[in-house]
Amino acid sequence: MKLLVGLGNPGAAYAATRHNTGFMALERFAAAHDRPRWKSARQALQAVVTLGEQTLVLLKPMTYMNLSGSAVAAALRFYRVALPDLLVVVDDTALECGVIRLRAAGSSGGHNGLRSIEAALGSAAAPGQTGRDYARLRIGIGARGAVPLETYVLSPFSAAQWPRMESALSQAVDAIQCWATRGLTAAMNRGQAAAGAAEG
Question: Which fold, 2-199?
Fold first, then answer.
C-alpha cells in the first residue's frame, strides 16, 4: 500500500488558486482512474485506487495548508504506511511555472505544508530516518516577483500560466503512475529523461 498526498486548502474560495496545485494533481490522477469516491476521514478527503496489485490511497488534507502534517501522520498510522511509500505533491514558487521535480527527500524549502508534515513525521520515522525522508513531487507555480507571497499563492493562475500548468499536471499524473507501479527510482529516471528531451 502507498499513500499519495496532495496539498491545498479546502473550500471553493481556494479551489483554483496556485496553492491548491497539489489538490489539482490528485484530482487529475483520480479522474484518470475511474474517479474513485472521495470520503471524509481523519481530517482529510480520501479515495482508493487499485493499480494491478498495488493499492494507492489518495489523501487531500482538510486542515488547511499550515496544519497538513496532522492529517498525513494520521493516515500513515491508520494504513501502516512507511515513509518510503509516501509521496506528497506540492506547489513550488522556486520552480518556473509548469516545471515538475520529483525528489526522494529534502527540506521544506519554506513551504508551510511541507514544514508541517516534517514536524509531524519526525516521531514516525524509522531508525536512521527523519521527518524529511519522504518523496515529494514539486510543481512549479513561478516566482511571485514583487507580489507578497501569500497574495501570490492564494491567487488563481494567470491566463498565460494555465497552458503550462495543464502540461505540468499531465506530467504529474504520469510521474505518480510510474512511482506507484514501478517505484521512485524509475519515476525519477523517467522525469530526468523527459527533461533532457525537452531541453534538447
Answer: Rossmann fold (3.40.50)
Section 190-197 average pLDDT: 58
Distance CA 118, CA 68 (A): 10
Backbone angles phi, psi at 40, to 5 degrees: -90, 125
19 is catalytic: yes
Q: What are the φ and ψ backbone dihedral angles of 78, each rounded to 5 degrees?
A: -65, -45
Element (H, E) at 177: helix 162-182
Judged against a pLDDT cut of 50, whether residue 197 lies above it is answered with no
Listed by start position, the domains of the chain span 2-199
Catalytic residue among 2, 19, 101, 115: 19
Residues near 111 by beta carbon (within 8 Å), at least 6 away in sequence: 90, 91, 92
Quick: pLDDT tens for 146-182.
Answer: 999 999 999 999 999 999 999 999 999 999 999 999 9
